[in-house]
Structures are given as C-alpha cells and as structure tokens.
Amino acid sequence: MSGGSADAPGAAAADVESILAALGRGEKLRLLAGCLPLRDVFRMRRRYNAAPYEAAAAPRLGVAGIRFVDGPRGVVLGRSTAFPVAMARGATFDPELEERIGDAIGVEARAQGANLFAGVCVNVLRHPAWGRAQETYGEDPHLLGEMGAALVRGSQRHVMACVKHFACNSIERSRFRVDVRIDEADLRDIYLPQFRRCIDAGVAAVMSAYNKVNGAWCGHSRALLTDVLRREWGFSGFVMSDFVLGVRGPDAVAAGMDLEMPSRIFFRGLGRAVERGRVAAADVDAAVRRLVRTQRAFAARGEPERYRSDAVASPAHRRLAREAAARSLVLLQNAPPPGDAGPLLPLDSAAVQRLAVVGRLAAQPNLGDHGSSRVRPPEVVTPLAGILTAAAARSVGVVAAAGDDPTAGAAAAGAADVAVVVVGYDFRDEGEYLFCRGGDRAALTLAPAHEALIAAVAAANPRTVVVLMGGSAIVTESWRRAVPALLMAWYPGMEGGHALADVLFGEADPGGRLPCTWPRSAEQLPPFANRARTIRYGPLHGYRLMQAEGRDPAFWFGYGLSYTRFAYGAARLDGDVLTVPVANVGARRGSEVVQLYADLALGTDPRPLATLRGFQRLTLAAGESREPRFPLEPAWRRVHVGPSADPRCWRTIAR
User: Fold this and answer.
1) How far apart are CA 636 and CA 639, in angstroms?
2) How many angstroms separate the Cα of 504 from the Cα of each of 108, 142, 420, 497, 500?
3) What is the per-residue burial (b if ≥16 Cβ within 10 Å, else e) of 497-506?
4) Other C-beta atoms within 10 Å of 43: how many?
5) d(Cα 133, Cα 144) in Å, to the nearest integer?
6) Pick from 260, 452, 472: which is nearest to 359 by CA?
7) Superfamily grouping for domain 317-524
8) Residues 580/519, Cβ–Cβ less than 8 Å
9) CA-to-CA distance for 32 and 30, rounded, in angstroms?
10) What is the model's pLDDT at position 1?
11) Helices (H), 62-219
C-alpha cells in the first residue's frame, strides 16, 4: 500500500467528496494552515508544543482536525517518556524494538490529546558536525529506511505519523537559506530512498525541509512534492511545512504543499493568489481533499482502552526506554589494563571494592537537544544515579567527583579500584540552532577540558572507563589509547543511567553498533560549512567514502564489541538466498548484528562500492548458533557479510 491514507473505496471516498462539496471557499482556505494565533508563534520559544498544535479542522462537517506533536525521542508534551535519541536507537539495528517504541509513543500521544506524531526523521547524516544528527538514525539510507518504517508502523497503530525533513536537510546553522546543489542521480540513490521506504510503510504525512534543493525551496519544489512524491511514489497523504519558514508564499500550494504550520503566515495571501491565477482553485481542492481523506482514514484507528493518563511515562514504557538504552550502548574498545589478564569490562563486583565516577555529565541530566525535539520526563536517571543504585546492590563503594576539575577527578580515581569518567556534549554544544545555543558542532573532538580530565584520571588509575555522550561521531585519536575501555552512550534517555550501570556490571551486553563512521580526523570527511549559502552534495560520505578513498577510520560503520565472541561460518547460496552460520563461541549471552553489503555503483560515482542492503540482530546464548538468511537481488553480483563495514572482517561471495 502506498501512503497510509490511500484512497478509501466506495462510501468512504464519497464521504470525502461530500465534505469537500459542502465546504465554503473561506473554510477551504482556513483548512490549509495551522490554527495557532500569530501572537503565539513568537511565544513558542518559551515552551514549544505545550499542547498539541491544531490544524485542518471543519467541526460542522465532522472533520476533527489534526493535533500535532513533535518528536522523535518521545512525545513533546507533558511529562512523557524520554527514550534514547534516534541516533542511539539507530545503533540498536533493531526494527522490532523501534516498532515497540513507536507503539509506546503513539499511546502517549493519544493519551495527551494528539493524533499526529511528527517525529520520524530520516535525513542522511552526511557529516557528524550536523547539530541535529541526534534526531536521525545514521548515515546509511537502508538503515534509515528500515528504522523509520518501523517507527511508522508502531506509532500509526494510534496516530498519524509524519516523516521529515524532505529533503537534503543536514546543516543546521544555515538551514533557512542554504541551497543544496546535487545531481539527480545522487539525490535519488542516496538522499531519497529512506523517504520512499517510509511512504511504502504507509506514513500519513511528509514534512518538507527549510532548505533549497537545486535552487527551489523544498516547500515550493514541484519536483519533490508532486513529481517524485505523488506521481512516482504514489503518495496520497498530505504534505505539511516545517514551522514558520517552511514556506515563503502561497504559491507553495501549486507545487504540492497542503498545510502551512503552525499558523497562517504566508498562506494569508492564498485567497488573492487564487483570484489572480497564481494558484488554481483545483490545487486548493486537491490539498483539502488530501487533508480530509487522511484524517478520515485514521479516524477509527487505535486502542482507546490504552489512552489513559497513567500510560504516560508508565513503568512499562520506562522499562522499554531502559532496554533501548542498553541495546544502543556501543563498546568501542575493551582491553586488559596493565597487569590484568582480561578486559576491564564488565566490572567484577567481587574485585571492585571502590568505584570512582568522575565528570560533570555523570551527575547532570543529559537528554540531548533543547529545541523542538525536547522531551520533559518526570525524572532522569543520570549515569551517577544509575551507578550508585547498582553499586549499592553489590556492596561496591562509590566516590564521586561530579565536576570537570582534573585535580579532583584524579584524586577520586587514585582512591578507587576502577574509574568511570563521563564526558562529551550537551544541548549547548549541538542541537537545533536557537537563540545562540546549540547548532552545528564547532569541532568533532571533545572540549579541551574534557580531554584534560581523561588524561588526569587515566594517569591516576590505569583501570579507567571513558563513557562518551553525544549525538554522533567523536574524534578520539589524541587520548583513547590511554584508556582500556571506551563506551558510547549517546543521549540515552530518562533511564540511561540504569542502562549504563547494567552494561558496566554485565547485567546487559553492550548491544549497540555504530550507525555512523567515526573518523580519525575531520580531514577524512566531506566538506562541511554551516554558514554556507550554497553547498554541493556529492555521491560519497561515510563508509562508502572510506572505501572509495582507501581511508581507514577510527571505527567503521556497524562496528561494536560484545562481552562474548562470535564466529562466522562459510556463507552459502541457495538460489537468491544467502545463508551464513553465526555462533556464540564465548562464555556469555550476547548480541551480534549480522550485516549484508552488496557491491553497487550509486549516483554519479561509477565504482561498485560495498553498500548495506540487509542486517539482522541476533541474541545468542553461550554455545548457541543460528543461520540468518538474506534474500539477494539478481543484480547483486558480489556480496559481503560480516559484523561491520570494515572489509577486513567480511565473508565475500561472488555470484
């Protein structure tokens, strides 16, 4: 089915047409814009999405209207469950888990009066400096599409879902003016497939991006909104603008825009534009039809018995947030400290009598961006709080140095058996650019104060674990060899502290795999100019760029360690199905993400580079084995299977 709001047959379609016929001209025009009073638009910075933003209602005809809530780390209303950010959930490589998160988000949205969740973000992470990297799932279109489609399926059991930002949105500071110049082949092969996957999953709505693509504002692009989205892909839902500056005039309706959000600003001139022939009356009717039809298609959907106030941040949803956080944590390195026989993690509580927890971010709630994606949960379990709870249950003493002072950190570490230092970013360093905070990262390295803290702690205690927080890749080359263990926690949500403790003490296997390539330096990456008015997007970024240029990143896309070991057997072909045996040959239960890459030329680059085309997450007990199966397309002449995009770890099969 194409689009969650595909044409309803028979009586339902006739009902939509009867509503359209009964609407007056003024009613139709009012349907095409949000209902927020203009004076309140300027107050959104005080408390964004405190209540659902309403639009497209015609109560006298039974059209209840759209009630918008933002995302994607949860419902931006009330005191909702704060799940790990989307980038962290991308690290799980687990669509089934993401579908369950979508279900929980849909329930919490309905319980608080919303009926549309605009939190399905599938923009490609072209460069890790992008401030809103945390809102998407990673750098690879296939991963983005599978995870986005899962969130659509889960949330649309209860609400309409909206996928965003269409298209080529991956610079924050200049998002309102930048023109992304891109060849058609690169656009279609790299920057659009994940949107198509969400359309095929039945998504109800699409949000356009602020930026231009090839000279046209995305909200005014007939090429994107009509030619590609509707004519080629068969999308029959509605298109809404990003807020305030998502359109620049009423002629956006002629290009295929249906709804200006959150208020009537530029569409105030729509009536005159119709009178003067700049917009056809038929275009207005088409937009109204799509808005009404989609609402009618979703009106009876849901499970009303679940939409209770106590469903919001319920114990079940908090357990789900904890599970997701543990599955998202990526163990990047885990070596034996000097003099030890085995790796530092997981911590042996019988051998650890005193644990130091160091760093300002250890004691600070750190859920990520404070812009439009901000969720305000009833409480946040910080890394320090989670470790204190777990340590008390194991009779392990904890000494905390909850600041970034190297002297205090070294003193605490020197008095402990193991030190955990928590460093990274928060909403001041990256996120939506608002009122001189957030925005794109100034650097890919840690702040000098955090690097100094790591050096001081590691010098005082060779058994040091560094826990990183942030929304995408971090350059670690100047210090990571000084510590035996390194974990990426992302922005792990309201239960992140408990999940971190679960992983540190071995109650959970570190389940994450990198959804983006971690470079050794910014010089390994494409150019990034966050104040650019024009920028060229080429066919290469991330792991495909590393392959094409023969570069060796710090950590490849898909990489992550476990507390156990996995062995891959010989892959075999049975017709168009590839089977590969995978066994847990270690002593513990653990998870592996088996990844399939096919040699493909994409966009304007003629080289056949290994490209992700399938993945399966396996959880295996010690000694257990399984044989995941991957369907292959006839055009794939050579494929590779392994635990990451690193060619050195592949099993290669030529057909």
Assistant:
1) 7
2) 31, 31, 9, 11, 6
3) bbbbbbbbbe
4) 12
5) 12
6) 452
7) Glycoside hydrolase family 3 C-terminal domain (3.40.50.1700)
8) no
9) 5
10) 33
11) 86-90, 95-111, 141-155, 184-186, 193-200
Query: Can you read off the two tokens belonging to residue 541?
Result: 């970024």
Each domain of the chain, given as residue ranges in start order, spans 10-302, 317-524, 564-654
Q: 488 is written with which tokens?
A: 């990426």
Beta pairing class for 205-208 and 160-166: parallel
CB 454 within 8 A of CB 432: no
Find tokens 């392994």 and name the residue: 642
| 187: confidence class by pLDDT, cuts 50, 70, 90 | very high
User: What pLDDT is attached to residue 10?
Assistant: 62
Helix, strand and coil content of the chain, in percent to the nearest 5, comes to 30, 20, 45
Secondary structure letter of residue 397 according to DSSP = E
Q: Kindly state the average pLDDT of the residues 40-48.
A: 89
Q: Is the pLDDT of residue 343 over 60?
A: yes
Query: E-assigned strands of 343-382?
Result: 354-358
C-alpha dihedral, 436 to 515 to 167 to 64, nearest 10°: -90
Q: Which of 94, 96, 43, 51 is nearest to 75 (CA)?
A: 51
Q: What is the pLDDT of residue 243?
A: 97
Could you tell me which residues are beta bridge partners of residue 463?
none
The backbone region for 395, taken as left when phi is positive above 0, alpha when psi lies in -120 to 50, beta otherwise, is: left
Give 545's contacts (C-beta < 8 A, 6+ positions apart).
Answer: 524, 525, 526, 551
The phi and psi torsions of 231 (rounded to 5 degrees) equal -75, -45
What's the pTM value of the predicted model, to 2 decimals?
0.97
564-654 fold: Immunoglobulin-like (2.60.40)
3-state secondary structure 130-173: CCCHHHCCCCCHHHHHHHHHHHHHHHCCCCEEEEEEECCCCCCC
Does the active-site annotation cover 40?
A: no
Q: What is the third-level CATH fold of 10-302?
A: TIM Barrel (3.20.20)
Sheet-wide strand order for 651-654: 609-620, 590-600, 638-642, 651-654
Number of helical H runs and strand E runs in the chain:
19, 28
Q: Which of 94, 140, 189, 242 is catalytic?
A: 242
